[in-house]
Design a protein that fits this description.
Six copies of one chain form a homohexamer. By secondary structure, chain A is an all-alpha fold. The termini of chain A are far apart. Chain A is 71% helix and 0% strand. Chains in contact: A-B, A-C, A-E, A-F, B-C, B-D, B-F, C-D, C-E, D-E, D-F, E-F.
């Protein structure tokens, strides 16, 4: 499983431009969203491994999944509302659709413990990171 | 000024269906976003009234404006990501555009102390509330 | 169940005066407390419906109940400590008693999964909303 | 000034019974409220000392005052809503009045930079601590 | 069990100097860390008492344990990073080691439901409180 | 200035192993601490650029500096308390000293608006990132 995570992170393109608060500071980064998505996936995997009666760690993994699905949604919506602007719409005509569906995937991962859905989320956030990288070209 | 607020709130259509967490609980409501937008407007007005040297209350009003602009954004994005679904897109073809621009208005109201922009935000959130009401018909 | 919620919300009197921060902004509203109480009730109902082995959603409903019982208490205490003033005590001699008991009901709803207690809370918060409305007359 | 703080803290009666969450854990303590009140007072004093043009530290002191006035209110309301019970009302007939006025003092200390009001708050919270100690006898 | 808690609290040395924010306000106190550690212990004990099928209270106790283990770590790290200074290193050559191990104990208490580990944490935080008291001499 | 930021980020070594919650999930990353330190620096620079009378943005920059100095401290302390273990002490004999001083730099950057101190913080966090990278070899 750690290999899977490592493999996924190796696919993440490195960014050197950042912007994340509304000051605006011009510091944006898709990586926190990617870390959050990877955490959701890891928690789903942990929930399969923990014995039925380890309530302490099952509850903690459910809560960590919830919190990071929330954080993932929050982080991608910062990119959507603050970083992407009118001028990007021509280059990325599916911009709104892409973010909307990824945000909905975050909610679905809260409601389910489903490795396939978690991997879909990791992939969707990677595509957003790629879109972000392409916008710099 | 209080009359303006009262007048604005009188225009708010009453809702009886609610949904606001990802349980999902089916309890949605545009009113918290409307209260937050009204608070942003009120803070801009307060900032004009406070004497130059009342740093305590100027700082508090700036911070309350910041916090409620953030909350306003958060609340409308809950409606956009969780309440509105594929089937609403036909009825509201400008759904994504509407929410995107309103979210950007929240950020602009953080960066400025500008009554016109604050009133634009109040109006934009009211239009979202109307869209929400229309979706029930 | 949704009918019950709708029915309860239909009973909520509409308010047009608001006050919720300590600026003070003069924007008060009992509705957030009412939404929180309705959410507590909904979670208790959800907890009866979820299958025994759906730990993910049972834990999430318990946590949402906890969080909204906390929020309900917070919201009514804003009304008690900030909105109601010396001059209201004559009109509402049981003001303190009313808020104290409702706050205690919030704690009880954290400690139990009990539909009757949740409905008591919804009713108690509605009475506070009525008291708030009467104070405007 | 530090002597004043030391003096005030020396007056604080030591408690050995605690209760602060709604589990309930039976761990209550008036000390966090007392620390918060002392911090409000300290910030008012700092605001007098900082030079006019040290905006960084003036803003930080205003914000710390705000946050600790909020925390002070939160902490005393935990005692009022969770610790004190029906059976204490006979012994402390002014229980509700006492907490209500102290909570209002927290709000006043947010709105003003006034050493007298801050000292009133410290004193009011000490009286609550004494009431708490007396309830154990 | 309540006797154990009382006994532990009786051992806590009283402090009259405090410092807890980065203003800096000079108000420090090891007591919040001690209250948090005692709460972790209490939750472990509660988890043994609750019947297997009381999911509501088991989940709440797990979450309270998590939150107070986090708070305990946060509070002792405030002492380590803000209160203790270069000049204390000579008097307490094991300062870093002591805080590092206690912080790790907080994490271990999140991951386990183990009364022995909880008591180790209570003891470690008491030793930090003693170190704090000795630094005043 | 943006060139400086870009330059600094180019120096950041890429990591492929992560760990940041106490589950433990094994997902650690020094990058959030580096982003936070860069934000502190950016805010200090913004505070020099904003006109004297732009209170809105000066207050917001002070608050963003405060919040990211806090976050920077929180993030590096996660690495110190959770990632680094007994076995790393031999390889990094100055481990504790390094983290202690960097944490203190976070507090100093809260208390001052000083570009030199902000650059020191960026450099110190980069050295921690390097130490983290070296620990993987």
């Amino acid at each position: 499983m750690n290999k899977l995570i490592s493999f996924l992170f190796n696919l993440i393109p490195s960014q050197v431009v950042y912007a994340h608060c509304d000051v605006p500071c011009g510091i944006y980064d898709p990586k926190p969203a990617q870390i959050a998505a990877a955490t959701v996936l890891k928690m789903v995997q942990k929930l399969k491994e923990y014995p039925e009666d380890d309530l302490n760690n099952r509850v903690r993994a459910i809560w960590t999944k919830e919190e990071h699905a929330r954080k993932c949604k929050e982080e991608i919506l910062i990119l959507w509302t603050d970083y992407f602007k009118e001028e990007h719409l021509e280059k990325f005509p599916d911009l709104h659709e892409k973010f909307w569906k990824t945000a909905k995937l975050c909610s679905e991962n809260k409601q389910h413990v489903d490795e396939e859905k978690a991997q879909e989320l990791v992939k969707a956030v990677d595509e957003i990171a790629q879109m972000f990288a392409d916008s710099k070209k």
